[in-house]
Design a protein that fits this description.
The structure holds two protein chains of two kinds. The radius of gyration of chain A is 17 Å and the shape is globular. Chain A is of the alpha+beta class. The two termini of chain A are about 20 Å apart. Chain A is about 20% helix and about 40% strand. Chain A contains three helices and six strands; from the N terminus they run ααββαββββ. Chain A has a six-stranded mixed β-sheet with strand order 2-1-6-5-4-3. Chain B is of the alpha+beta class. An eight-stranded antiparallel β-sheet of chain B has the order 12-18-17-16-15-14-13-20, sandwiched between helices. Chain B has a four-stranded antiparallel β-sheet with strand order 5-4-3-6, with no helix packed on it. A three-stranded antiparallel β-sheet of chain B has the order 2-11-10, with no helix packed on it. In chain B, strand 8 and strand 9 form a beta hairpin. In chain B, helix 1 runs antiparallel to helix 15, helix 6 packs across helix 15 and helix 10 crosses helix 12. The chains are: A alpha+beta, B alpha+beta. Chains A and B meet through strand 2 and helix 3 of A and strand 6, strand 12, helix 8, helix 13 and helix 14 of B.
Chain lengths: ~170, ~450
């Protein structure tokens, strides 16, 4: 965790970062994944470590060498391409999702990127009577100014369950 | 009310009463007759490399600590304090010299021996009231390992694991002994799906028929070239011992090294594979031209080995996954999915293989996503009344008289043990289901309860 203080909420950088996350969430909820990919840098790293239950003194609560996601642009593009085929059964009929983004804090870093931390609650409903799924996570993002707006260069998703109660991660967080 | 004899008779003729995939009475029988006896996978030795390392794993509702003790011996202990029954370890992994129960501070060494019992003298009057000497957490009734895979059975009279594995050990080596160093296991990813546990086990055992359609999307996007129907039907299905699996046909004419190269194993890994595998194992790859893909070891441990394209440059990287279908209820399963890789492989290969795994299998895998969608749907349908009027046809590959519609493969075209058929068929699922039926046909396993620390004096019990 960063020792520095977050930018004031009225800071234009924070406002821009917050708006980026909200608009990104809107694209994900609309399943507009091509537009979502356009918000990512070519060198994107998109990771979601496996969380584990450990004793308080263990010094770790996620696996260092195993994630639910550990993606580069190639892998993310393949996922998006797959969802666009006629054969991605798990999302056809599609899930109804709502990404709730809150607790946004923006930090300046030593380089040109901003560190943006947020909390995510994703509601996912499939079919008519299936129990809806909830996924709670923290996100630690690196945003970079591309000259043509902000781009997401890195996202680390800290999921709050060790055993996911969702059928799969055919959705983005 | 369940007519068990009728259900088992149907299953044995290849007709599967659909309700078995969502039936609480069947689930209770599976718990008492199948999981109370079978060898069940818990962990791999590479997950607990150092003294004091432990993981906590379950067999249905029973929690076990799998620990490496101070002398390096792997121990599997029932995770229940001998005093009031509290879980003595509530983390899922870590390193500890002792496990101390939070309730009354009874403390156990990491080999299970009871090391601390507060106020033994004052509270119990010493050894006479509670025999502390020699007490330990209940060990798993049977425990055995093969290629570093740690299995337990709740049956103290289980046969030796190697005897149980039989001819499946031949195929197990492709997944778990690519070099003398063995595998390292990473993970597991864990998630819960509203699907009956049997469906995944059967699918991995032999359902090459689903691959071209269920997984059409991964062919569409050029991630993995093999699943298309024209290639998939050239693969061989085998049953061997308590296991069964699928293979892909490799390009014609390649020798052992060329076939390994085709699926993405770099040349520097070939000498260890050559040293690690027998002549017949190498012949299956090099001469017969088959590479293992999915498999299931009865009851609920599955394997998969695929070789997708992992970057724009077209790099093909193979990966191995072990996965367990841990039953939660008749309609829910916890999936544990591990990434496995040769411990001696180059770091670059491990990185590529890990990427290949994440793209294809596990909680976010592009293959797995569509599998689970099917299995959840089957389970939901199987729970209704109409499902009791339908016996699903699992006779693919058999004529009406019950003979295979084609002969099994000869040993000179498929060098592995067991019985193999080329092309589509449900031989393997029936093989799995016959074992399932045989388990459910037995009387429930029973074991006498232990009076803990109490030496009964005749006539003096209160």
């Amino acid at each position: 965790m960063t020792a520095i203080r977050p930018l004031p909420y009225a800071d234009p950088a924070h406002l821009a970062a917050h708006q980026f996350l909200v608009e990104e969430a809107a694209l994900l909820d609309a399943a507009d994944y091509e537009s979502w990919l356009a918000l990512l840098t070519e060198d994107i790293r998109y990771v979601m470590p496996v969380r584990v239950t450990t004793a308080r003194g263990a010094g770790f609560d996620s696996l260092a060498d195993m994630g639910h996601f550990d993606e580069d642009m190639y892998a993310l593009r393949k996922r998006v391409q797959r969802l666009a085929t006629d054969h991605a059964w798990t999302e056809d009929p599609p899930s109804r999702t709502r990404h709730f983004i809150t607790n946004v804090r923006t930090f300046r870093t030593a380089d040109a990127e901003w560190l943006v931390e947020s909390a995510l609650l994703m509601f996912r409903s499939r079919g008519d009577t299936r129990e809806a799924e909830l996924l709670s996570a923290g996100r630690s993002d690196r945003l970079r100014d591309s000259g043509d707006g902000l781009r997401l260069a890195r996202r680390e998703i800290t999921v709050d369950e060790s055993v996911l109660r969702t059928q799969n991660l055919a959705v983005f967080l | 009310m369940l007519d068990l004899a009728a259900v088992l008779a149907d299953v044995r003729r290849g007709m599967i009463p659909a309700h078995v995939y969502a039936d609480p009475e069947v689930f209770a029988l599976e718990r008492d007759r199948l999981f109370a006896r079978s060898w069940v996978f818990l962990a791999h030795e590479s997950e607990i490399p150092d003294p004091g390392d432990y993981v906590v794993r379950r067999v249905l509702a029973d929690s076990f600590i799998v620990a490496r003790d101070e002398t390096g011996v792997v121990r599997v202990m029932f995770n229940m304090c001998l005093h009031r029954g509290m879980q003595v370890c509530r983390a899922e992994l870590g390193n500890a010299s002792h496990f101390r129960c939070p309730y009354h501070a009874w403390t156990y060494r990491n080999d299970g021996r009871l090391a601390g019992l507060p106020f033994h003298g004052e509270a119990y009057g010493g050894e006479d009231g509670f025999a502390r000497a020699g007490q330990s957490l209940l060990p798993a009734p049977s425990m055995d390992t093969h290629n570093g895979l740690i299995f337990i059975s709740l049956d103290a009279d289980a046969p030796p694991l190697r005897d149980y594995l039989g001819d499946f050990a031949f195929y197990l080596d492709f997944y778990t002994r690519q070099s003398p160093a063995g595998i390292e296991l990473r993970g597991p990813q864990r998630w819960r799906v509203k699907a009956n546990w049997k469906i995944g086990a059967e699918n991995f055992a032999g359902d090459s028929y689903h691959t071209p359609h269920t997984h059409a999307s991964v062919v569409d996007i050029g991630l993995f070239r093999e699943p298309k129907a024209s290639k998939r039907k050239e693969g061989a299905l085998y049953v061997a011992g308590p296991g069964a699996g699928t293979t892909y046909k490799l390009p014609p004419g390649g020798d052992f090294a060329e076939q390994l190269r085709y699926v993405g194993y770099p040349d520097e890994m070939h000498p260890a594979m050559t040293a690690s595998w027998s002549a017949s194992q190498r012949e299956l790859v090099g001469g017969s031209g088959f590479m293992v893909s999915a498999a299931t070891l009865f009851p609920n441990l599955s394997f998969v080995h695929n070789w997708p394209q992992i970057d724009e440059a077209g790099t093909v990287a193979p990966f191995i996954s072990l996965r367990q279908w841990q039953p939660v209820s008749e309609q829910e399963t916890e999936v544990l999915s591990w990434f496995a890789v040769d411990a001696a492989a180059p770091e670059e290969f491990k990185r590529d293989s890990y990427k290949a795994y994440l793209m294809c299998f596990g909680s976010s895998g592009m293959f797995e996503q569509d599998d689970v969608e099917n299995w959840v749907s089957i389970t939901a349908m199987a729970a209704g009344s109409m499902a009791r009027r339908l016996n699903l046809n699992s006779r693919m590959g058999l004529s009406s008289s019950g003979d295979p519609i084609k002969p099994p493969m000869a040993r000179d075209s498929f060098a592995g043990p067991g019985v193999a058929y080329q092309g589509f068929g449900e031989f393997n699922q029936r093989h799995w289901l016959r074992q399932w039926a045989d388990c459910l046909d037995r009387e429930p396993a029973t074991a006498a309860a232990i009076d803990l620390g109490h030496r009964a004096v005749r006539g003096a019990a209160r």
